[in-house]
Amino acid sequence: MEKQSRLLCSELCVQRRLYEVTLNCAILAWKDIQIAKKHTGRAIYGAVKAGSSCVPVCEIIAVQEKDDDTPCKNTGKWQKVPQSPADPCQHAFTVFYVERTRQHCWWCSNVTFHCSDHSLCLLWVQTIREQLALLNSERRVNYYHTFANRPKSLLVYINPYGGKQRGKQIYDHKVAPIFSRASISTDVIVTERANHARDHLKTEADLKKYDGVVCVGGDGMFSEIMHGLVSRTQQEAGVDENSMEETLMPCGLRIGIIPAGSTDCICYATVGSNDPVTSALHIIVGDSQAMDICSVHNEDRFLRYSVSLLGYGFYGDVLTDSERKRWMGPARYDISGVKTFLSHRYYEGTVSFLPAEGNLGSPRDKMQCRTGCSVCRQSSSDKLVSKNEDSVSDAECQDTWTVIRGKFLAINAASMSCACPRSPKGLSPSAHLADGTTDLILVRKCSRLDFLRHLLRHTNKDDQFDHSFVEVYRVKQFRFSPRYQECDSEVDLRESGVTGKRFLSQICREHRACGCMPSQSNWNCDGEILPHTAIQVRVHCQLIKLFARGIEEQQVFEDPYAHCAI
Ligand SMILES: Nc1ncnc2c1ncn2[C@@H]1O[C@H](COP(=O)(O)OP(=O)(O)OP(=O)(O)O)[C@@H](O)[C@H]1O
Ligand SMILES: CCCCCCCCCCCCC/C=C/[C@@H](O)[C@H](CO)NC(C)=O
Ligand SMILES: [Ca+2]
């Protein structure tokens, strides 16, 4: 590695939490701090030789010179405690860094170095700070993923209403202290109503001031912020969102998610956990993870964007029912899930889709999207090529659309795995974050027992697609039209508040659809209900970026920076 320089300090004693270790030597390399330990073989990356641990500089949060003062017992005043002549370590500095723990969680660990020579101590602090500053001045790519600049200024939106309504406490107690340690300045807005964040981003926020936007909430809150940023970007680029054919302009600012919702599947599928501290650390180190976005239109009207789930039938009905139970918090989905399952409603309609071609894998190839995903990287380079050629793909020219009519219990489009605590592998375990496709899952009418088997496979390791009544396709676009179009009387009835049996009996008289079953479900779009059921969906590859790196492989790491291309 270039710029390899070593600062040797002998006889440093490291006071680390509960145990004292004596350093034979501490070697500060430009890229890594190797702390040779005598007593512990515990290493952050297991492959590093026993008795040492390796902290990549790019995972250092901060370094702080430590006044090694302890209050003098008799006066209580802070003063430098004279060290005994036997203990020459009277100057110290503390390094705060990322430590990986269980199931993709990170936490902010620290180690304090003591040193007899004050100038050497200052040199360490200055050198580490110079290295941290360098991280923001060079494009860094390693074997796994591309780093981007560390944020120094963030716009934070807190939803006090989502999940268990603890968004403000989570931010104040778990996240703000780490941001402050990392010298990140923040402007914090606690939202006062639904769509407050979206509207502020679309019209008022001075985005030039910030290196990123942070969402403290769940998927719905993320959706608001994503809509605000994407719409603002299109507006400033003169792109008409109502035109489905338009190529959308990618967003410059990254979005960070501090999970404080009920499902939190977007955070879970991009970081690997729904732990607020883990997400805060991914933001601080400046991770960058591209993500696909689906645009949803009804005829020539833009409806919404989606990054996780577009669900009709089961998940649409679960959401519709759960909206009236928000006061229950996350448990509302379980109650509504069981109620919807027991109702066992199916819906008739026509699904047509444009299959994805080329080496984009398949929803059943068992290949999971992980940090540095080769499929997503391939899509990134393909995207650059097609942007230069500015051509519509052959399939789109030839319109090789597939059409399927039928009776469905569920129609789901998963643009990511949709992994979440309820379903650790997600609705589509092999879906990719940034491959330009969405996995279209069709669950045809079947028995309650078969459907239950299918649902329960979302919660265990069995293949939820291995059923005769389930089909799954990787697509770039799809459309849905219900067999029974929503007519004015249905809309009038909904709008006049007529619901329940009277609504159904009215429908049945007019449509004779079938014995007292509503003819249509609602679309669940990232946890929000769409106002129309006939929709056209198109995937826009890598339209936004998150402060994340995808889910890291759980294997023991070699030195992840050994491949540093610097
Ligand atoms: N101050 C507020 N008052 C009322 N609603 C709000 C407020 N701020 C945001 N919202 C809305 O609350 C809804 C739910 O928020 P959020 O997604 O964070 O929680 P959740 O639905 O419990 O989580 P998940 O979507 O992960 O299941 C969002 O649609 C958002 O638009
Ligand atoms: C009767 C037994 C039911 C077991 C069902 C287990 C399957 C759970 C799968 C959950 C996948 C959630 C997909 C994510 C959707 C989000 O976009 C949305 C908003 O957060 N959440 C929901 C619940 O719609
Ligand atoms: Ca995708």
Provide a brief overview of the structure.
This protein is 26% helix and 28% strand. It has 566 residues and is α+β, with helices and mostly antiparallel strands.
The CATH class of the largest domain: Mainly Beta
Uncertain segments: 1-31, 35-51, 68-86, 506-514, 555-566
Number of helices: 13
Bound molecules: adenosine-5'-triphosphate, the ligand CCCCCCCCCCCCC/C=C/[C@@H](O)[C@H](CO)NC(C)=O, calcium ion
Number of domains: 3
Mean pLDDT: 80
Task: Name the overall outline.
Answer: elongated
InterPro entries: ATP-NAD_kinase_N, CERK_C, CERK_PH, Diacylglycerol_kinase_cat_dom, Lipid_Phosphate_FormReg, NAD/diacylglycerol_kinase_sf
Pfam family, one: CERK_C
Protein name: Ceramide kinase
GO molecular function: ceramide kinase activity
Key terms for this structure?
566 residues, PH-domain like, Rossmann fold, Tumour Suppressor Smad4, 3 domains, 23 strands, disordered N terminus, disordered C terminus, binds adenosine-5'-triphosphate, binds ligand LY3EYVUO, binds calcium ion
